[in-house]
Amino acid sequence: MSNILDDKLKAALASREERWIRRRLPDPIPSSSASSSSSPSTPILIDFNSNDYLSLSSSPRLRSHFLQKLSRAPDILGSGGSRLLVNGQAHHDLESRLSKFFNSPAALLFNSGFDANVGFFSCIPQQGDVVVYDEYVHASVHDGVRASRVRKEDRVGFRHNCVESLRVVLGRVKHNWERHSGTRTKKNSVFIAVESLYSMDGTFAPLQEIVEVMEDVFPAGNIHLVVDEAHSTGIYGDKGKGRVAMLGLEEKVLARLHTFGKALAATGAVILTSVLIRDYLLNYARSLIYTTSLNYANIIAADASFDMLEDGTAEQAASKLLNLSLYLIQQLQTRLSTFPERLISLPHHLKSLPPLSRYSHPQLHSLPLSPIIPIMTSHPRPLSSYLLALGMNARPITWPTVPKGKDRIRVCLHTGNTKEDLDRLVEGVVRWANEVLDAGEVEVGMVGGGRETGTGATLVASKL
Ligand SMILES: Cc1ncc(COP(=O)(O)O)c(C=O)c1O
């Protein structure tokens, strides 16, 4: 057999290796349920990595509630086929429940958030329409838009969370449309794609301001906002309904995406939208039509998690989570301020908050606190390895997942973390930074996917 294909694939992987961006699966981590029986040589890591923000995956209450529901359910295995062929009662019931819970005219389940974004953006924007997206929006939105009939020049990014940049982009779209004697203004629509909480930065979309700019530039209303709430679901708003609901913007948003795989400890996703769009998706969204729908056990798991939202469990867990976030930011603000910025620092949006100790308690709850706290460093891999050796799992995030020069370790907090866990994290980060500085070999100015081999950072990481 020819080696042509193998050679090309190997060359691509080698090139990634060379540029220090080759992806690999992390080593398997023993599950928490196996913790008591795991050997001393496989210590349980403190989780600063998963998206299980509310620690529901290890909640004994949710576990027994789910098992009870499962044992009572008429169907639990498989789902039998595509939603279009086999419309399970459980699927139908969950959609009805979610449209009521989220106060939406209609709800449509997808197998994942990825499938939902691809399904939506590949078919709802029509030929001649424009999609304007935040530069940090999720890969699934890009994949959807690429598969759509929207022309390449009609897919336009704006600067992350920058309302002024959005205004400029929309102004340009409007100007171009008017040059065509206004016919496009009368015939076409603009879609804006944002996330309510960005997964790599822990920043919030200024949804209210975005709506104001949209209405200002396109007062005729042929402009539509689509909000991905993957990382906000369960944490923000009344009973964890998300940030659109928290801000009372349900009527201003064409579609919302809530995923079940993160804070809800389940799998799958729902798009909340109009009856018409739901119907259109059922007819044109290929990621919904040509796939086996979520199996019954998945539906029961998601339903059990929504019980935790409805009974207030999630709100309590979220409050604890955001207090942990506040505590960690306070510690990092103080402890990282003396290090060179390129070596280790908080991102601008967390550094620029006045020291949090100056806020009174009620004011704290209006702060933009999230469970996602990036710690910026030009040496994310050595820092992550160092923390791993100390029993903490905080992953390095590098280009191409984030822009060049914005490497970091991303700390994801969970309700199940303790203040002692956070103290340990802060101590570990500070100790690493001091050791790197003491080693004196590190080029603190180095950025991006630069190879760290031979630098003080690697030496410090490998000493452990
Ligand atoms: C913002 C955002 N949207 C969508 C998705 C996809 O969701 P799912 O994991 O359910 O496929 C993710 C997951 O990484 C995400 O972070």
Q: What this model shows, in words?
A:
This is PLP-dependent transferase. Keywords: Transferase. It comes from Pluteus cervinus. This protein has two domains: 28-57 and 314-463, Aspartate Aminotransferase, domain 1, CATH 3.90.1150; 64-310, Aspartate Aminotransferase, domain 2. Helices cover 42% and strands 11% of the residues. The chain contains 18 helices and twelve strands. The strands form three sheets. A seven-stranded mixed sheet has the order 2-8-7-6-5-3-4. It has a three-stranded antiparallel sheet with strand order 9-12-11, with helices on one face. Strands 1-10 form a two-stranded parallel sheet. Mean pLDDT is 90; it is low at 33-38 and 444-464.
Number of strands: 12
Q: Ions, cofactors, ligands: which are bound?
A: pyridoxal-5'-phosphate
| Major sheet summary line | 7 strands, mixed
Q: What's the helix count?
A: 18
| Global structural class | alpha/beta
Q: What name goes with the CATH superfamily of the largest domain?
A: Type I PLP-dependent aspartate aminotransferase-like (Major domain)
Strand sequence of the main sheet, in spatial order? 2-8-7-6-5-3-4
User: What is the CA-atom radius of gyration, in angstroms?
Assistant: 23 Å
**Percent of sequence in beta strands:** 5-15%
| CA(first)-CA(last) distance | 45 Å
H/E series:
HEHHEHEHEHHEHEHEEHHHHHHEHEEEHH
Fraction of helical residues: 40-55%
What is the residue-mean pLDDT, rounded to a whole number?
Answer: 90
- The CATH class of the largest domain: Alpha Beta
CATH architecture tag of the largest domain: 3-Layer(aba) Sandwich
The CATH topology of the largest domain is given as Aspartate Aminotransferase, domain 2
| Low confidence ranges | 33-38, 444-464
